[in-house]
Design brief:
The protein is of the alpha/beta class. It has one domain: Vaccinia Virus protein VP39 (Rossmann fold). Helix content is 31%, strand content 28%. α1 crosses α2. The mean pLDDT is 91.
């Protein structure tokens, strides 16, 4: 499937009804989700089991399944978001498992993790449990982070390594009252992390 076709399909995925600022529930835009997933697909990393950590309403999990992942499991602590995710998967005609649990309680193993973890705007370091769980449960991770995180991430994940990375934009729509613009363009970095 071409990246543009995936993006068009993912635009049908419903977002949060009432996002939680503490959980940094920002909807991952379809264009960014398609970009990250196509990156993983082109590297052959979506053929086996895929975990989506902090899956929210399921856009990355659903996209991974659309691209042919054998088994996809989305994890989140917000049951309301997971209810939307289940409805989204049903609407898109894909079989994705969604589980409600804390990030540190995730069990099992996947070949690949895809995630858009909290950026730490509400609680500094809130992305770290996601990174640690990704390293513990998978061979390869695709993750979205604030621009300028490369050196910190590389030190934090050692002995795992960032094998590929690039900068792109995250179009963040006005979600909370404190947002001043209808759409804010945020520079982000996409990492492919491999165990050594």
């Amino acid at each position: 499937m071409k990246q543009r076709k995936l993006e068009i399909l993912l635009e049908k995925v419903a977002g949060f009804d009432s996002p939680n600022v503490r959980l940094e529930q920002y909807a991952t835009p379809a264009v960014l989700a398609a970009e990250v997933l196509h990156f993983a697909y082109m590297n052959g990393d979506l053929a086996d089991t895929v975990y989506d950590l902090g899956c929210g309403t399921g856009i990355l999990a659903i996209g991974a399944k659309l691209l042919g992942a054998e088994r996809v499991v989305g994890f989140d602590t917000d049951e309301k978001a997971l209810e939307i995710a289940r409805n989204n998967a049903m609407k898109m005609g894909v079989d994705v498992e969604f589980k409600c649990c804390d990030i540190s309680d995730i069990k099992g193993n996947a070949h690949t993790v895809v995630m858009n973890p909290p950026f730490g705007a509400q609680a500094k370091g809130s992305d770290r449990p996601f990174i640690l769980t990704a390293l513990r449960t998978s061979e390869v991770t695709y993750s979205i982070h604030n621009c300028g995180s490369h050196d910190f991430i590389q030190k934090f994940i050692s002995p795992a390594v960032i094998t590929e990375w690039y900068k792109t934009s995250f179009s963040m729509k006005r979600t909370f009252k404190f947002h001043k613009k209808d759409v804010e363009q945020i520079e982000v970095e996409i990492y492919r992390i491999m165990q050594q």
